[in-house]
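Problem 12. The chain below contains 301 residues. Write out its predicted structure in token notation.
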Amino acid sequence: MPEEKKLMFIINPAAGSSGYKYNFPEALLYLSTNGFVPSVYFTAARGDATRFAAEHAPEYDVIACMGGDGTLSEMISGLMQIEDPEKRPPVGYFPMGTSNDVATTLGLPKNDPFAAAKKLVAGTPHRYDVGGFGNDGYFTYIAAFGAFTEVSYATPQLQKKALGHLAYVLQGMALLPNIESFRTRVEFDDGVIEADLVYGSLSNSTSVAGIVRLNEEMVSLGDGMSELVLVKNPENILDLSAIADSLISRRFDSDKLIILHTKKAKFTFEKPVAWTRDGEAGGEHLTLELCNYKAPIKMIF
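Solution.
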């Protein structure tokens, strides 16, 4: 009989068209017969997962959430509020919903609680970086501004449920004629870049909004380094086509595309710019400092 582990299980019942109901009893039974003693916490409003984790995670051996990347982001933000790293339990993820960039990066099964339960039982904890957003915020896998960053939260919920990933693509296409550039100063570990940018991000993921994919060899999840991605303003339709081709083919050879590794990045704009944090609205900022906290948590996969 496996040694019992107390499992804090945070569930977003709205994620993935209430997909938690699919195979949920089987998932709980599998966890219970493989050494886990689950205590279930259902979220009812934004911020619940953060509060639950911050207040109760140290009481458990493992913490997991079922929901989208936003639910995971909230939960990890709660863990980061626990000052003693030794009191932050390893993290499991049961991905539900549409894009699920973290699930893609970690190779976790999506929208299948039973398959995710098997992954949790068989998985091992891995060191995992967390991003710092401004003075007191965090992000799990990406902070970004500019073209397409609003797709994940601007796409209507009903459209997401009906069309899934296609909803993001359609929303992105609709935004193409309105791409805006921002005069930006970016200070990072090794220097400074000043340019007109249509996109900028600091990330720890191979998948961004289910659209952009970085090569696996470019991303190490627990090395204390993040990927800084900058896209310069295309001067014409040929430039735009070359950028798209570079991203889709993953050659990253366009002179309008910059990808660097850094521990921190400070962005300064001429006017406030809207940011997203793990696919959710992150507010408008004239200056924003981002950083990488090296492996403050462990992810099970």
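Discussion. The two ends are 22 Å apart (CA to CA). Students who got a different answer should revisit the alignment rule from Section 12.3.
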